[in-house]
Amino acid sequence: MFSKACEYGIRASTYIALQSLEGRRVSLKEIAEEIDSPVAFTAKILQLLSKNNIVDSVKGAHGGFEINKEKIDKLKLSQIVDAIDGDKIYAGCGLGLKECNADKPCPVHDKFVEIRNDLKQMLENTSLFEMTAGLEVGLTYLKR
What we know:
InterPro entries: Tscrpt_reg_Rrf2, WH-like_DNA-bd_sf, WH_DNA-bd_sf. With about 140 residues, the protein is mainly alpha-helical.
C-alpha cells in the first residue's frame, strides 16, 4: 500500500522518536541498520523528512537525527506519508486501472473508497508517540 520509501520513512521516524525520547541523537548509519535499509536510500528519505520538518538534522561531531520531544506526540503518520508519498495513496484505482471514478467505477471502487477513508483516518489519528509505545516494551519491531 505504501511505497518502500514511505515504509522506511515511517520506521526511521519511529526509531528516531524512540531514541529522542531517551535523549539520544542517532546517526544515519545507525538508523539504516536498525530499519534494515540501504544507507544511501535512508539518506534520501531522511532528507525528505528533514525538509518537511518531521526530523531535525544536526551537523557536526555530535550530530545526527532527532525529533523535539514536545513534537513527537503531535506528529501524525499522515504527515510522514505526505512528506514521502504525497496524497497519491488516497487517489487512484484499487486495481490500478487508468480510468476509475464514481462515474466509471471498477468492480471494487466503492469498497476501496471505504478502505482508503479508513486508512486516512487511521494515519491522521496515529501519533509518532503511539508508534514508539510498542517498541519501548519490545512488543513491536522495526525490522522485517
